[in-house]
Amino acid sequence: MSTNSSIRLIRHATLLVTVEDTTYLVDPMLSAPGVNPPIQDTPNQRDNPLVPLPDIELAYDAVVVTHRHTDHFDEAAKAELDPNVPLFCQPAEKEAFVEDGFTDVRPIEDKTMFNGITIHRTSGRHGHGELAEQMAPVSGFVFEADETLYVAGDTIWYDAVEETLERFDPDIVVLNAGEARFNHGKPITMGVSDVAAVQAATDAQIIAVHMETINHCLLTRDELRANTENVHIPADGELLSL
User: Fold this and answer.
1) Are the C-beta atoms of 225 and 231 separated by less than 8 Å?
2) Rg (CA), the chain
């Protein structure tokens, strides 16, 4: 990435993504530890979030929400975000954000421009089979400028992710790992094999987030680090200039 571009992991899937001097707050989950109940029907019944937010100022020009599951947009975010900030989202969720009091909601059907950056919305599959249908809709976003950044969102590895990599040839890919799962069925976010599949399909630098914060995300950073190579696995609050 260029010197004026960076990615900071706040916690879980919450990111500050700076592209050519414009900063996007992605998937804000801002709750204090333990204030939300566990995700039900999962092996690890602990109140969420499991860890605190790092002590970092959230300065941003726009907000991007991949989907409105509570670990990507929560009541604390609704209360604390600037209601007049440009907010990019899936078309299906526009009205919910308007009802929340946001005044500049910009659903992306295919693509849009913001501060000279093209933002594309991409497809995601949040699990397998019928469970994925129940979890839908979810999206990823590609930020296209001098460098191209792909935030895949809550998805497993499948053909649409591969097609996105082929179409945009991104420089940076952010993957939601953690191998989130329920007591039944397959994982609903990426695990070791999904990350490896992405690596095999692209020359991009890979950043893995979405771990150790929500009770049903069972893959740890150490486990992912031990089973992959050349994957950036940031700590909460860590700034990456790649």
Assistant:
1) yes
2) 16
- Tokens 């950036």: give the residue: 232
| Neighbouring residues of 191: CB distance < 8 A, sequence distance ≥ 6 | 177, 179, 219
pLDDT in tens, 157-170: 999 999 999 999 99
Contacts of 163 (CB under 8 A, 6+ apart): none
Please report the sign of the dihedral spanned by the C-alpha atoms of residue 152, residue 172, residue 29, residue 50. Answer: positive
Q: Is the pTM of this model over 0.85?
A: yes
C-beta separation of 16 from 64 below 8 A: no
Per-residue tokens: 181: 């799962």
Summarised one tens digit per residue, pLDDT across range 64-117 is: 999 999 999 999 999 999 999 999 999 999 999 999 999 999 999 999 999 999
